[in-house]
């Protein structure tokens, strides 16, 4: 899944970016509000992590513009301002959750996963599909009683397909879930990763939709 990180502090941003990538997310990092505004206008994200104290366009202004435009992407607000009124203002402007600085990276990742679950209509972390169960928090996949080892790219594609069951995902949509701004898109990578997933999880799991892409059907 692709996440937009909007943070002007290099030290904090580097730590968050590294943690998100290790947790299996593709990350775009915007260092100011103007770059974030452009990113949101041109790219679809599963989640936005937004600092309020930004140069050029403030985080609060960016949040209000996002909601006024009808974009309902989940937004986790980060800020050094920790008063009750600050939190209320952020939530009423359209934030889905609020985390004050300083914070623990483990908590940030847990809040990100919780927001994603809600946006996908899930109440629990574990995703089940027939004999397959996957846990995004621990990045583990079990087929029946056997653990299946997946690469980070295979994992990202599997999560994208499972969280959009019944909705065909195009090659470009899958690429967006895999690659951030700084990552080079590999030729035929999607086809190779899907082929490997079929070998590991069964050929019937992922269906090719001719002229569109791939889909995991609803149970």
Automatic annotation (TrEMBL):
Question: What GO terms fall under cellular component here?
Answer: cytosol; protein-DNA complex
Q: What does the record give under GO molecular function? A: phosphorelay response regulator activity; transcription cis-regulatory region binding
Record bears the keyword DNA-binding: yes
Q: State any GO BP term from the record.
A: regulation of DNA-templated transcription
Q: Which Gene3D superfamilies match?
A: 3.40.50.2300, 6.10.250.690, Winged helix-like DNA-binding domain superfamily/Winged helix DNA-binding domain
OmpR/PhoB-type domain location is 124-218
Keyword annotations of the record = Cytoplasm, DNA-binding, Phosphoprotein, Transcription, Transcription regulation, Two-component regulatory system
The family database entries (PANTHER family) matched by this protein are listed as:
REGULATOR OF RPOS (PTHR48111), TRANSCRIPTIONAL REGULATORY PROTEIN QSEB (PTHR48111:SF35)
The protein, known as: DNA-binding response regulator, OmpR family, contains REC and winged-helix (WHTH) domain
Q: From what organism does this protein derive? A: Paraburkholderia megapolitana
